[in-house]
Amino acid sequence: MRKDDCLFCKIVAGEIPSTKVYEDDRVLAFEDVNPQMPVHTLIVPKNHYDNIGDGIPDEEMGYLFNTVKKVAEIKGIAESGYRVIVNTNDDAQQTVHHIHVHVLGGAPMNSGNP
Ligand code: 5GP
Ligand code: ZN
User: How big is the chain by its Cα radius of gyration, in Å?
Assistant: First the structure.
């Protein structure tokens, strides 16, 4: 289930290069090209969904979020802490419309509230 004009579908397919952090048959985690923190990794399901509101099945959503802790372990931030963000639609400034989880860490952050 890919969408032809989608950047992250192209990254999943290997048509656009990325720095891989973790991959299995369902998800891909890769480094954000413009990191906002010392650790800034994105996790995407291999299937295309625009965002949280796009009918992603519970099981797929659960798998996506369970991948967060694997990525945190791999990146060495499981103990020090990290922030998980899923920008959704315009007010949140979602720019890539293939659901993705930002995992941010590696240094202390400001308050999580906007
Ligand atoms: P959004 O604002 O949609 O939540 O975040 C999209 C993220 O994708 C941004 O943090 C941006 O830096 C990242 N990004 C955009 N294009 C690319 C790309 O071609 N490769 C990688 N690795 N990250 C990208
Ligand atoms: Zn896509």
Answer: 14
